[in-house]
Amino acid sequence: MAFVTSKEMFAKALKSDYAVGAFNVNNMEIIQGIVDAAKAEDAPLILQVSAGARKYARPAYLLKLVEAAILDTGLDICLHLDHGEDFEICKKCVDDGFTSVMIDGSKYPFEENIALTKQVVEYAHAKGVVVEAELGKLAGIEDNIKVDARSATFTDPDEAAEFVERTGVDSLAIAIGTSHGAYKFKGDPYLDFERLEKISKLLPNTPLVLHGASTVLPEFVALCNKYGGNIPGAKGVPEDMIRTAAKYGVCKVNIDTDLRLAMTAEIRRYLVEHPEDFDPRKYLGPARSAIQAMVQHKIKNVLGSSGKR
Fold first, then answer.
1. CB 177: neighbour CB atoms within 10 A?
2. Within a domain: residue 309?
3. Which pLDDT tens digit goes with each residue over 144-177?
4. Is 1 domain-assigned?
5. In this predicted structure, what is the pLDDT of residue 183?
């Protein structure tokens, strides 16, 4: 069962004002909720796997679950490695059948990031696999990626243009104010759209990527807290900011935290309201439905990718 690359998805998105949703997956219910939403909305879809997901679910299981999703829905799905930290993990995922990999060399100096990215690009392109890289550092925590606010740096537009030219990378993740996790802003949300516009003008044919772009939807935070959770002060990227970013070359928007919150909120609610139940299907089924509803909302009202498959 073959996956597709993101090349055609991004080529279409670049010509319009929408972005493709890239959703992180960890288990069967999350995958089912996402793909059912994409099918219902007839939307292009990227499923992405982090290092933490590979460790938790194990690569073989994730591969077969995504293959099963294709068989079940008939969707064209791009399978992407999220935040590959070195050449070896990127090579492994390329060899396993991934059609897209991210090499995250943002923790290294500029020249080292270029050298590492070029190494991955040369190997992946020879196998027909596309590559995403990152320039600039996002604050926050996601799996084994930890960057404090003082270490976060926004992407320099001129460096971005040089980086893409010298590496031949297919898409570029940029830092303009988003961050990983559920606590993205202490004050008012802010994204540097002026910087984004400069980057998109210098790289008009390069798809740009926003990491850490979950909205941290208040209704899910409230539901978690109502049923025993402790998530005070969580704040994400307002949805109108994501819609604006899609007008400036952002073709891929990563969403993970919102998936976790939707699933956890529904599980918490069900278990409190039905303390007598101990069948996992009883609470994982509603959690899957909550993910589907949330992803459909993102596709239709935020990403603008409904009907774009």
1. 21
2. no
3. 544 444 435 899 999 999 999 999 999 999 999 8
4. no
5. 64
Q: How far is residue 249 from each of residues 16, 35, 272, measured CA to CA in Å? A: 9, 25, 44
Whether pTM exceeds 0.90: yes
Instruction: Count how many domains the chain has.
Output: 1
Q: Which H/E stretch holds residue 94? A: helix 87-96
Which residues, other chains included, contact 231 with Cβ-Cβ below 8 Å and sequence gap of 6+? Answer: 182, 221, 224, 225, 261
Q: Do residues 46 and 21 touch, judged by C-beta distance below 8 A?
A: yes
Q: Does residue 144 lie in a domain region?
A: yes
User: Could you tell me the CATH number of the domain that includes residue 19?
Assistant: 3.20.20.70
Q: What is the dihedral sign for C-alpha 87, 89, 92, 98?
A: negative
Residue 139 lies in a domain: yes
Per DSSP, the three-state class of 48 is strand
Exposure string for 213-245, b = 16+ CB within 10 A, e = fewer: bbbbbeebbebbeebebebeebbbbbbebbbeb
| Known active-site residue 82 | yes
For tokens 């004002």, name the residue.
17
Answer positive or negative: Cα dihedral of 112, 11, 176, 144.
negative
Question: What pLDDT, in 10s, does the model give residues 264-292?
Answer: 999 999 999 999 999 999 999 999 999 99
Report the alpha-carbon distance of residue 153 to residue 205 in Å, rounded: 24
Q: Which of 36, 76, 82, 95 is catalytic?
A: 82
d(C-alpha 304, C-alpha 309), whole Å: 11
> What is the pLDDT, as a whole number, of residue 186?
73
> What is the domain range of residue 152?
7-303
β-strand partners of 255: 23
Q: 252, 232, 145, 239: which is closest to 183 by C-alpha?
A: 232
